[in-house]
Amino acid sequence: MATTKKFMYVNRHPPYGTVYALEGLEVVLVGAAFEQDVSMAFIGDGVFQLKKGQDTSDSDMKNFSPAYKALGDYEVNKLYVERESLNERGLGDDDLMELTWEDEDDDWSEKPSIHIISRVQLADLLEEQDVILHF
Amino acid sequence: MLHTVNKSPFATNSLQTCLGLAKSGSTLLLIEDGVYGALVGTAAAEAVVQALQEMHVYALGPDLKSRGIEKEKLIEGIEVVGYDGFVALAVANDKVQNWL
Fold it and tell me: Where are the domains of chain A?
């Protein structure tokens, strides 16, 4: 039996100016098929990926923000957002999309996927990982 | 002179450098990821608030909307324009500098 590794995808770029965010999200969704222990971190401008209310109808770009809502269905339900990065950008918890997942071990109850943590906590989480990929 | 900035102020020093060299009375238009510089209460906001005292500052509406930035989140004094406003600013100014 294959061993499960801890994968963390670190997102540092905002959603539309470059292709990092979209490509990173696609890698996470594809990688979810391999049944690893996956988590995502959002730091720096990466926190803007989770900003609620994105609407590209006036700019002819692809609004891929709804795809983050699918992560929970792929058992990617640990999204860590660094509080310091939010604060530096004038954002609070209420500015982020509401992302949830259904816990089959707890009568399919809906639970939040986003966890806002401190820089120190994130540093510890990074230390725990087997594989860390940056986008 | 019209200055456009298309990078996040948290990712590069494009905005900072632009504001350091832009003359009083000139115009700044924030576009693409540059619109994050229009957000109120950020680590970069103070420089923009200062600039507003002697410059006109605009942000491109479609780029704000794409990123989920509501008007209430903007620094006071920044005006939102559409693509037509972008064109009008480019026409109204004798020169344009794009700070990439």
Answer: 6-134
Structure confidence by residue, pLDDT tens digits, B21-44: 999 999 999 999 999 999 999 999
Q: How many domains does chain B have?
A: 1
Write out the residues of chain B at the interface with chain A, using a CB-CB cutoff of 8 A.
6-8, 10-11, 32-33, 36, 39-43, 45, 61-63, 65-70, 73, 82
For residue B92 the two structure tokens come to: 């109204």
pLDDT digits (tens, 9 = 90+) for A25-58: 999 999 888 989 999 999 999 999 999 999 999 9
Residue B56, min C-alpha distance to chain A (Å):
22
pLDDT along chain A (135 residues), means of 10: 88 97 96 92 98 97 96 96 98 97 96 98 96 96
A81 within 8 A of A119, measured Cβ to Cβ: no
CATH of the domain at B36: 3.40.1260.10
Whether residue A51 and residue B61 make contact (CB cut-off 8 A), yes or no, is: no
Cα distances from A98 to residues A65, B23, B79, B88, in angstroms, run 11, 43, 30, 39
Under an 8 A CB cutoff, do A44 and B10 touch? yes
CATH of domain A6-134: 3.40.1260.10
Which domain, by its residues, includes B21? 2-99
Could you tell me if A19 lies within 8 Å of chain B, comparing CB atoms?
Answer: no
